[in-house]
C-alpha cells in the first residue's frame, strides 16, 4: 500500500472489512495480510507505489482491481498507467482498451499512449498525458514496470477472470505509427525481464478455486452493499 493511496482511500475501514467481517468471505490469505497491515499501521511504512522494481509473486491472481490496489501492485483502480513524469511508470494494466493498435505476445508487448485511437494529425501524436510521459521516463531510466493483465484483454495471455500480476517488464523503445484515421500515436515496446515464472505457466491462473472464491465474495458484497444502501435511504427519510 502506498502513501499516495492512503491519502485517497479509507484504508482503516477497508482493512477492517477484509479481516474483521467474516460475512465478506475473503480468502484467508487476504484476511491475514489485512490484519498484519492494520496492526503495523503506525510501526511500519507503507509500500510506495513508485517502487517499480518491487517484484511481487508473479503467480498472484488479483481478482478485482481493488485487490491490485490492496497489494500495492497498481496504484489506480481505473487508470491503465500508474506513475508520474518524474519517476516513471510504476505499473500498467493490459486491458485491451486499444486492441486495434496494441499487440501482446506475452514476453513482449506494445502499449499505446493516451489518445492513440482518436488522434487525426498525421504529423504529431496527441499531447502526452502524465501517464504517457511516465512511460517516456521509464524508457530513459530503465526502471522495470509491473504489468498486470485484465480479463477484458483479447490476447491468449489475458486471464479468464479478474486481473493477474504477470511480473516485471522494461520499456525498451517507442515508435510513432499511424492509426486507422491516419493520426500519429505513441507506442511503447515492453520486454519481460528474465528470471521470472514462465509466462506460459501463468496463463493457467486463475484456477477454478480462485474464480469460485471471487464469485462468493462478490455475491456477499453485493448483498451487503444493497442492505447498506436501503438502510441509508431509510435514515434519510
TrEMBL record:
The domain of life for this entry's organism is Eukaryota
Q: Which GO terms describe its biological process?
A: negative regulation of gene expression via chromosomal CpG island methylation; protein ubiquitination
Q: What is its main location?
A: nucleus
Q: Which residues form the YDG domain?
A: 51-192
* Gene Ontology molecular function: any one: ubiquitin protein ligase activity
State its location(s): Nucleus
Q: Which InterPro entries match?
A: PUA-like_sf, SRA-YDG_sf, SRA_YDG, UHRF1/2-like
Keyword annotations from UniProtKB, A to Z: Nucleus
In the UniProt record, does the keyword Nucleus occur? Answer: yes
In terms of PROSITE patterns, this protein maps to: YDG
Q: Which GO terms describe its cellular component?
A: nucleus
Q: Which residues form the signal peptide?
A: none
- According to UniProt, the name of this protein is YDG domain-containing protein
Tell me which species this is from: Hortaea werneckii EXF-2000
Amino acid at each position: 500500500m502506498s502513501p499516495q493511496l492512503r491519502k485517497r482511500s479509507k484504508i482503516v475501514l477497508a482493512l477492517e472489512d477484509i479481516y474483521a467481517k467474516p460475512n465478506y468471505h475473503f480468502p484467508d490469505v487476504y484476511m491475514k495480510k489485512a490484519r498484519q497491515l492494520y496492526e503495523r499501521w503506525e510501526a511500519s511504512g507503507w509500500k510506495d507505489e513508485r517502487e517499480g522494481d518491487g517484484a511481487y509473486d508473479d503467480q498472484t491472481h488479483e481478482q478485482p482491481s481493488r485487490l491490485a490496489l490492496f497489494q500495492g501492485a497498481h496504484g489506480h483502480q481505473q487508470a491503465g498507467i500508474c506513475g508520474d513524469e518524474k519517476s516513471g511508470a510504476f505499473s500498467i494494466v493490459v486491458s485491451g482498451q486499444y486492441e486495434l493498435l496494441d499487440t501482446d505476445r506475452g514476453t513482449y508487448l506494445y502499449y499505446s499512449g493516451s489518445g492513440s485511437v482518436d488522434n487525426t494529425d498525421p504529423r504529431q501524436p496527441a499531447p502526452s498525458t502524465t501517464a504517457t510521459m511516465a512511460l517516456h521516463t521509464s524508457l530513459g531510466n530503465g526502471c522495470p514496470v509491473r504489468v498486470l493483465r485484465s480479463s477484458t484483454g483479447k490476447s491468449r495471455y489475458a486471464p479468464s477472470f479478474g486481473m493477474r500480476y504477470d511480473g516485471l517488464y522494461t520499456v525498451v523503445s517507442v515508435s510513432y505509427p499511424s492509426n486507422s484515421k491516419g493520426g500519429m500515436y505513441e507506442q511503447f515496446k515492453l520486454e519481460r525481464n528474465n528470471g521470472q515464472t514462465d509466462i506460459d505457466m501463468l496463463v493457467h491462473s486463475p484456477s477454478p478455486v480462485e474464480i469460485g472464491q471471487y464469485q462468493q465474495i462478490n455475491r456477499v458484497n453485493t448483498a451487503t452493499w444493497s442492505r447498506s444502501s436501503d438502510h441509508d435511504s431509510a435514515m434519510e427519510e
